[in-house]
Specification:
The complex is a heterodimer.
Chain A lengths: L8 H14 L3 E5 L8 E3 L9 E5 L6 H23 L4 E3 L2 H21 L6 H21 L2 H12 L4 H17 L10 H21 L2 H4 L16 H10 L4 H18 L10 H21 L7 E3 L1 H9 L1 H13 L16
Parallel strand pairs in A: 1-3
Antiparallel strand pairs in A: 2-3, 4-5
Chain B lengths: L2 H16 L3 H14 L4 H13 L3 H14 L4 H13 L3 H14 L4 H13 L3 H26 L3
Classes of the chains: A mainly alpha, B mainly alpha.
C-alpha cells in the first residue's frame, strides 16, 4: 500500500488483505478533482501498472476510509474475475445502440402522443442518446452497489456508522436526481431508473441489521431519524412520494435482488474463489435486471477495453442508429442543441 | 520586507497546496519564512506541506517552531500529532492531538488521528470514542458543504 495519510486500523488491514489476495498494489491519493464517491482506477480496467483510489481532499477521516473500503471491495470482485476467468462489463456496439435507441424512441412516441406540448425533434434525439448512456452506466454500477455495501458492512463493522451516513446521502441524491426532467423523459424510463434505487435502498435496509445502523451519534441534522429503524428511514421517503409506480417496479426489482443474493455467505473466508462467485452472482443478477427492464440486446458483456473503445466510437454508433430510425431526416447537425439534460 | 509581500507568498503557497502541488507550495512558504520567520502560520503551513511530501521529521521541527512562537496555536498541535503519527510515535501523537482538541474541540482531523493512534496502542474504547467525535464533525462539515454546493 502506498499512502502518506493516516488510515484507521481496520481499513489499513482491509487494504493490505486486498493487496495480498490480488497480489497487487494500491495507492491512495487525495485529489481535488475526485468524485464525491471517490474513483477507482484499476489494473483490471485500464492499461496501468498499479491501482489507485482517488478521493476528495476534504474527506480526511472515516468518510475517506469508507470510500476506500468500498473501492477495495470493487477491486476484489474485479480482480477475482480477471484472475479466475475474465472480468467483463456491459458494453455496446452499433447494433446494440440501435436496439436501445429504437426502443426508447418507440416508448417516447407513446408518451409524446399524450402530451400537449411536444418535445422538439433535436431534443428528443438528444434525450434518446442520453438515456441510453445513463442506463449503460447504471447497469454497470447499480447491481454491484448492494453487494459492495453488504460486504463492507459484514467485514468492517467498525465503519458501520459512517456507512449509514453514506447510504442516507446516496439514497437521497439518487432519489432527487432527474426530477427536473420528469416531464421530458418517457415515463417508463423515469420509473425504471427510480425503481433501481428504490430496490437498492430497500435491500440494504433489509439486510443491514437496523440496531447496528442506528444513528447513535449526536448530530443535530440527523435528530429527526432518532428512534427510527434504518428500514423505516430508507423506506419512508419512498412511500411518501408520488412515485408509487416506482415502488411497484422497485418491489419486483427487490425480489430479483433478494433471489440472487440470498445464498451469499457474507462472512465466508475471503478468497479468489469466493469473490469470483460473487462476481458471477452480480453478472447473473445484472442479466436478470436487463431482462426485467426489457432491455435485452441493448448491451453486450465484453472486456473493459471493448467498452472504452465503444465509448470512443459512441457518436458514430449513435449517428448510425439514428440514421436507421429516422432515415435521411438525420444529419450531423441534428446533434446540435441541448435539451438541458445533464 | 512588507506584510503584503509575505501574505502574497503565503496565498500562492496555499493555492498550490490546495491543488496538491506541495513541492511548489514549499517554495513559496520558504520565501515567506525568509522574509518573516516570526509568523507561526507560515511554519505550520510548511509543516503541512512537509507531511504531504513525507518529510515528517522536518514537519515536526516546523510545528515545534510554530508552537515556540505561539503555544496555543491549534493547527500546529494538530499537525504535530499528524507528523508524530507518521513517525510511529503514537503516544506523543495522542498527546499533541489532545492539546489541539483542548484548544478546539471541532478539529475533525485531530479527533481522527487521535483515534487512529489510540487504536494502534490497543486502546479500542478510547479510539472508538475519538472516531465517533471525528465522524460527527465530518458529517456536519459534509452536510454544510453539500448545502453550499447546492446553493442553499
Amino acid at each position: 500500500m502506498k499512502t502518506d495519510m493516516p488510515l484507521s486500523r481496520p481499513i489499513r488491514l482491509f487494504v493490505s488483505q486486498t493487496e495480498e489476495l490480488l497480489d497487487t498494489e494500491i495507492s491512495l491519493l487525495r485529489n481535488p478533482e475526485a468524485d464525491q464517491n471517490g474513483t477507482l482506477v484499476d489494473v483490471y480496467t485500464y492499461n496501468i501498472e498499479k491501482n489507485i483510489i482517488l478521493f476528495p481532499p476534504q474527506y480526511t477521516g472515516l468518510l475517506k476510509d469508507f470510500i476506500i473500503a468500498r473501492h477495495c471491495v470493487n477491486l476484489l470482485i474485479k480482480g477475482a474475475a480477471a484472475k479466475k476467468t475474465r472480468y467483463l462489463v456491459c458494453s455496446f456496439t452499433g447494433d446494440s445502440v440501435y436496439k436501445g435507441l429504437h426502443q426508447i424512441y418507440i416508448d417516447a412516441l407513446k408518451d409524446e402522443a399524450k402530451k400537449a406540448k411536444k418535445l422538439p425533434v433535436h431534443k428528443l434525439i438528444r434525450m434518446l442518446n442520453i438515456l441510453y448512456t445513463n442506463f449503460n452506466n447504471d447497469i454497470n454500477e447499480f447491481p454491484w452497489n448492494p453487494i459492495t455495501n453488504a460486504i463492507v458492512y459484514h467485514r468492517i463493522p467498525q465503519i458501520r456508522k459512517t456507512q449509514l451516513y453514506y447510504l442516507m446521502k446516496e439514497g437521497k441524491r439518487d432519489m432527487d436526481s432527474m426530477m427536473e426532467y420528469e416531464d421530458i423523459i418517457p415515463r417508463r424510463y423515469f420509473v425504471l431508473s427510480k425503481s433501481m434505487f428504490y430496490a437498492r435502498d430497500l435491500y440494504l435496509a433489509k439486510i443491514l441489521p437496523a440496531d447496528e445502523l442506528m444513528p447513535v451519534i449526536n448530530i443535530p441534522q440527523m435528530k429527526k431519524f432518532n428512534h427510527l429503524e434504518v428500514k423505516e428511514m430508507l423506506t419512508t421517503r419512498w412511500t411518501q412520494t408520488s412515485w408509487y409506480q416506482s415502488k411497484i417496479f422497485g418491489d419486483a426489482m427487490l425480489d430479483i435482488m433478494e433471489k440472487h443474493l440470498q445464498n451469499i455467505d457474507w462472512n465466508a473466508e475471503p478468497s479468489l474463489d469466493y469473490f469470483h462467485d460473487i462476481y458471477q452472482t452480480g453478472v447473473n443478477m445484472t442479466n436478470h435486471f436487463i431482462s426485467y427492464m426489457s432491455m435485452q440486446g441493448w448491451f453486450i458483456w465484453e472486456t473493459t477495453k471493448h467498452l472504452q473503445d465503444a465509448q470512443r466510437k459512441k457518436a458514430e454508433f449513435e449517428f448510425g442508429a439514428l440514421k436507421k430510425i429516422f432515415g435521411d431526416l438525420i444529419e450531423k447537425s441534428t446533434f446540435e442543441g441541448d435539451i438541458g439534460y445533464p | 520586507m512588507t506584510t503584503k509581500e509575505v501574505e502574497q507568498l503565503i496565498k500562492k503557497g496555499r493555492a498550490y497546496a490546495t491543488r496538491t502541488k506541495y513541492r511548489e507550495a514549499l517554495i513559496y512558504y520558504e520565501k515567506a519564512l525568509a522574509l518573516d520567520p516570526s509568523n507561526p502560520e507560515t511554519w505550520c503551513l510548511r509543516a503541512a506541506a512537509f507531511i504531504e511530501t513525507g518529510r515528517n521529521e522536518e514537519a515536526l521541527k516546523d510545528c515545534e517552531h510554530a508552537l515556540s512562537l505561539n503555544q496555543n496555536y491549534v493547527d500546529a498541535w494538530s499537525k504535530k500529532g499528524y507528523a508524530l503519527y507518521n513517525l510511529g510515535r503514537f503516544d506523543e501523537a495522542v498527546h499533541s492531538c489532545t492539546r489541539a482538541l483542548t484548544l478546539n474541540g471541532n478539529d475533525a482531523s485531530a479527533w481522527y488521528i487521535k483515534g487512529v493512534c489510540l487504536d494502534e496502542l490497543g486502546k479500542t474504547d478510547e479510539a472508538n470514542e475519538a472516531y465517533g467525535k471525528s465522524l460527527e464533525l465530518e458529517i456536519i462539515f459534509d452536510m454544510q458543504a453539500d448545502l453550499k454546493r447546492d446553493g442553499r
